[in-house]
Design brief:
binds zinc ion; seven-stranded parallel sheet; alpha/beta; two-stranded antiparallel ribbon; TIM Barrel; about 270 residues; 10 helices
Length: about 270
């Protein structure tokens, strides 16, 4: 199984060293792990200026040597994308993009610069939150900077009690042009299993969204746990592979040097059983 969304001490919100998560990955049956630490460009973000790409890349090379033969360790990044920071993201990708195997583009901020956390919902309807969020997702896809899009329907994770009747069907029409752009550009989206462990109790996105993407002709999916703790590395991935199969997806993407290869889900399930 592939866990392509794992944080380490290079993220401001994570205290788990790379090696510890590598050991946890092996124990959980993960064969490929991508460490995707936050690359934050919003000056007010707690992680602003925290990420050190050169030190990170060296540390991954050490882990690659150390776990060779037992686990494939990939150089990844979760780059925050929002309308206000496109110039800095462009220069990060220009300088470092080629040094990575795999780059996630994730939208965490609303277009007005507010983090999409529970407070942001207070004086807004679900549409007020989701539609501008999805506009930014579309821009992230069209930027051409990212291999996959992180947690496609993230706002559902932070919706406070007053906003918990999220039904993805409401946004199907808005998602379709996003899927079309993904398919045209070969950009994947991830199934982020952290939603299974947290409030939404469903992955981000869940099966309905995957089905619509497949109906549109989409086939490229990455899988990740968004782990900030060693014990969640690999969690929910087996279930996700079953879910993808039921939705008509038969491969998941594996990345090296920013290029995808399509690995049959049946092969991964065989190895895991
Ligand atoms: Zn994220
Ligand atoms: Zn993350």
């Amino acid at each position: 199984m592939f866990d392509y969304h794992v944080h380490s001490t290079f993220s401001v919100d994570c205290v788990i060293p790379i090696e510890e998560s590598c050991r946890a990955a092996i124990a959980a049956g993960v064969t490929e792990i991508a460490f995707t630490d936050h690359v934050d460009h919003v000056p007010a973000d707690p992680g602003y200026g925290y990420y050190r790409p050169d030190a990170y890349l060296l540390e991954i090379e050490r882990a690659q040597d150390r776990f060779a033969g037992a686990l494939t360790v990939l150089k990844g990044a979760e780059v925050d994308f929002n309308q206000g920071t496109t110039d800095v993201v462009a220069s990060f990708i220009g300088e470092y993009g080629a040094a990575y195997d795999f780059v996630i583009g994730s939208v965490h901020y609303a277009p007005n610069g507010t983090m999409i956390f529970p407070d942001y919902f207070a004086d807004r309807t679900e549409d007020d939150v989701f539609l501008p969020y999805l506009d930014q997702i579309q821009q992230a896809v069209e930027s051409g900077w990212f291999d996959t899009i992180g947690h496609l329907d993230l706002p559902k994770r932070y919706a406070p009690k007053s906003h918990r009747n999220y039904d993805p069907a409401r946004y199907r029409e808005r998602l379709e042009p996003i899927f079309d752009a993904m398919i045209e550009r070969g950009v994947a989206f991830e199934i982020n299993t952290s939603g299974l462990r947290q409030t939404p109790k469903t992955s981000m996105p869940g099966p309905a969204v995957v089905r619509w993407y497949v109906e549109r002709g989409g086939r490229i999916i990455t899988t990740g746990t968004d782990s900030h703790a060693a014990q969640t590395v690999g969690s929910g991935l087996a279930k996700t592979l079953d879910m993808l199969t039921l939705c008509g997806i038969d491969t998941v993407a594996s990345f090296r040097a920013r290029r995808a290869q399509h690995v049959p889900i049946a092969d991964l399930q065989m190895r895991g059983s």
